Amino acid sequence: MLTSYGYSTMIKVVLLCMILSAAAMIFPSGAQISILLTVGIALLFTLYFFRDPNRTTPDEQRVILAPADGKIILVQPHAESTSANHQTLVSIFMSPFNVHVNRIPISGKVTHLRYCPGKFLMAFDNKSMESNERMEIGIDNGEIEVLFNQVSGFLARRIVCTLKSGEMVKIGKRFGMIKFGSRVDLILPPSAKVAVQPGQKTRAGETIIARY
Fold this sequence. Notes:
This protein is an alpha+beta fold. It folds into two domains: 46 residues; 149 residues, Glucose Permease (Domain IIA). It contains three helices and 14 strands. Helix 1 runs antiparallel to helix 2. The longest helix has 21 residues. The mean pLDDT is 90.
């Protein structure tokens, strides 16, 4: 299953591969093989990158799920927390080989939605949290509010987010993606008890990040 978020990119890649394949015919046979092999690898990687497997949302209440596939690289107090508001930062790094479709971490109402232009530092660089291009999202279910950011990376320069302010959303549902390597940062409220640790792998819509 391929994600509709990547259709435009996939069409462009397919057309480019067709042009390169046709152009390869004017070269000697040795060069043709190299060009066609490169084209084939590029096409297969593109299709692999935009895969969108189905996920099964855990049958458990009061949980916050991973919005992205990847690896936990940070679990620490949020820098902007105060003594009266001990928020926790959980960061998920997404390599180019991870599924990049993002999913809703908690059911509720979209209360915050802001696009922030910025730099394109390496996604595993912690400075990217504040400096890179990102989409800030907040969801409130009436009991807690979870904030999370889609953060672009060195290769990822296209953030897709289909959410609208005031929209009601359901946990585990698709809402966008970040193309070609990136990270997602979650800012969890004091009542959330983190259930993951650095180095752990996550699956969007399935891995429980915290309980409350």
